[in-house]
Amino acid sequence: MSAVPARDSRVPFETQPAVLETAPAPLEMRPQRGVSLFWRTFFFLSLLLVGCIVAWLQTFRALEFEPRALQSAQQLASLVNLSRAALVHSDSIARVSLVKTLADEEGVRIAPREPNDTYKLYNTDSLSQNISERLSARLGPGTVVAREVNGSPGLWVGFNIDDDPYWLLTDPSRVGPVTGATWLIWLATAAALSLAGAALIARLINHPLKKLSFAASRVREGDFNASQLNEMVATSEIREVNIGFNRMAQRLSKVEQDRALMLAGISHDLRTPLARLRLETEMSVADPQAREHMTADIEQVNAIIDKFLDYARPDQLKPDRVNLNQVVDAAIFSLGNDPTMRIETQIPPDTIVLGDAVELQRVFANLLENTQRYGRTPETGMAEVGIAAKVRDDSVLIKLRDHGPGVSPDQLEHLTQPFYRGNASRTSATGTGLGLAIVERAIARMGGRFAVSNSSTGGLSAHIKLPKAPD
Fold first, then answer.
1. Residues in CB range of 286: below 8 A, 6 or more apart
2. Which candidate, 328, 280, 278, 282, places its Cα nearest to that of 303?
3. Quick one: three-class SS letters along 152-212?
4. pTM of the full predicted structure?
5. What is the annotated localization of this protein (predicted)?
6. Whole-angstrom Cα distance, residue 13 to residue 41?
7. Are residues 208 and 236 in contact, defined by beta-carbon separation less than 8 angstroms?
8. pLDDT for 365-422, tens place per residue?
């Protein structure tokens, strides 16, 4: 049967390629999203600085607590003792004047304590409790420290003069902890400055690493000239890394140039004697069968040279608009009329991808050649191939499937390695083991992805994901 592809979607044989399935996991996997080095460094520095601020605040409060409680208790006790002594040793007329002077000058008011007075104890926090305990210890039993008496807030101290109870009211801010907007403003300012410093430090650490990452990506793409790093930076460690990376890139560039020159020399030096050998064989060997075998051997050597050159092809490639239908048709036509091979295609009309037409035709030619060699159905000996494509978002998913024996699962990941031939049929074949490796490299050069998998219904499936050309 002719290898010309059938455009009718009604495929006449049982093993028609199914509608393109979702590409296997290797094509759909995305790099795991992670936190960039800048944000990680910023986060850890911020955490460290916030922890230091909290530790400092707790240390300050601990160091301030006992001295403030002791000082406040002493001041209140002195105020009460002085007021009590002044009241005891003054006559009734001077006592009235003294009480008025204390209220006007010191903000201290003294009032009799009635039995029916209601009050709330001064014990809202640990500082107030500590002050209350110290005052009771200094002023004796019967001392009451309250924060509110008869609904009037303040710092009230209940004490006795002889047997008469009194209240002394003073400003609670005398003993209050450090509070207010000023404290919060300074704390917020310190936190903001700490975070800004953490961001600056993280940026200084991340910036040279970001440049190194970009340069490494350019080297990976084969652009050695655009990967030069600054060798005059002030930081000695970064300067040494940049110098080492630049020397490595220069060495790789030299190796790449030598490789290209060597391959060009091999191609030139081997093809000329091979052409002479073929001509001499056809003219000098009388036995037609021997001549045919020798010519086939020369053609095989020539094909092997082509495979090596294809695999070692440079990575630089400028993508262009390519009609997938035309490329697949050309690859099928290049196989010639093979009666043991049947090919069916299901590709939407005018499917345009971004790539290189010559490279893409070479890709499909390699895949079809691989199927022609290893993808024959054991029962019939026919190589039945299905090629299907599906446009999805900004990509085109292509699936080429045969109905052969497939390969064992442990060999799948090795199929795209150069010179790998995993089973007996491959070992006995005349191929080089470079076909799928050439396909993977060519697809990667075009910005796509390639993977192979065993089909659920038998056979081997090749999955290709290429960028869709914009409309």
1. none
2. 278
3. EEEEEEEEEECCEEEEEEECHHHCCCCCCHHHHHHHHHHHHHHHHHHHHHHHHHHHHHHHH
4. 0.47
5. Cell inner membrane
6. 61
7. no
8. 888 888 888 888 877 778 889 999 999 888 999 999 988 888 888 777 778 776 666 5
